[in-house]
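Entry for adenosine monophosphate complex. Fields follow.
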Amino acid sequence: MNVLIIGGGGREHAIAAKINESKRLTKLYAAPGSDGMADIAEKVPLAVTDVEGIVAFAREKEIEMVFIGPEVPLLAGLADALLKEGVMVLGPEKAAAELEGSKVFSKNIMKKYAIPTGAYEVFTDASAAIAYLETAAYPTVVKADGLAAGKGVIIAENREDAVAAVKSMMEDKVFGESGSRVVIEEFLTGEELSLLAFTDGKTVVPMIPSQDHKRIDDNDEGLNTGGMGAYAPAPVGSPEIIDAAMEKVMKPLVAAMAQEGKPYRGVLYAGLMVENGDVKVLEFNARFGDPETQAVLPLLDTDIIDIVEAINRGTLDQTEIRWKDGYAVCVVISAKGYPGTPVKGDVISGLEAETEDTFVFHAGTKKENGAFVSNGGRVLGVTAFDRDLKTAIEKAYARVRTISFKECHYRNDIGQKAFRHLT
Ligand code: AMP
Ligand code: GLY
């Protein structure tokens, strides 16, 4: 069949590579795609939010299945429009994608259905929020309600910082309408875990657990980013923890969404905090994580087209989903300036040196005069595979060190938290 991917980052490159392994694939397109994945997915010059354009393209090219990578097109109703056309989709409809699009929606549904998460209050008025901050415990967490490109969460160490966060969101509108409501949430301690699952709205099948590395520098220091690396399976997600997450979070949430008349089909991403053998939800995302996907999907051993077909037909309960043994580690190479404004346009060397069991995913590159140059904050994601985690990490870094561009940056400790759990 003909398949289309929406998006053009490292996550979408990893999705494209997995689809490309399918025996059922005829032709793969990506809108907008990227030069880095153009060898496996033909670039289509359409914006991810051009719903009409994408629907018309799907009709013209007889696309049977669309994978929606980022959250913005989900909230623009792209899945709804494609489903109306009879196209199979990976990604929830707009009403269900509100789980990511509105933190207030997400927190309220967790409260209503007793899904474990931090205590919180919602404010629509800056002065009420500021008054509440007088008595809050610190650190406290201030979150813009709507999408904020991963920047809408502020962990405030004291009242002054929390008030500044509220003012910037609600009065200065740094995230536009996304900040017209804020959630002020209890600060949770523990170890973070990303649990992604496939769901057809009834059955929920977890993927292997993964762990992101959000801060820009080693030892979780420096600014928050979209994610500087990931590995899977992450041993913090022990069988007991995954069981707790499935029974207390994933299954009740999918049942709740159905109950609310907003059935959730697609990939459900739970950002979880693990402490003392139990889990609490930090956030839900309505899509694959980036960079978790670059570590998780290489280990998927079942045809992803079969899985997405089962999600669309409601037959996930009859689909066996298998994973390869071993570990995958993804190290992100970022540009100077990231997570602020990145420097772009530097020539990248070392991309051609193929290594066994490694794969370079392009996140922010473009081709200029036949050479790849940096073109974003997160530039590349280098994934390596091995039966053994330590060796997978070594292989990833060995490959990373062969690649360079001016003032490129990466963390040196991706995957190290795993050894707290492995002996
Ligand atoms: P979110 O976009 O909600 O996942 O928040 C981004 C990051 O902020 C998370 O991955 C956590 O590292 C951190 N975070 C969010 N909420 C909390 C919380 N209640 N307590 C502690 N850290 C949090
Ligand atoms: N890696 C975090 C996210 O995709 O939201």
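NOTE: The chain has four domains: 2-93, 125-180, 191-318, 327-422.
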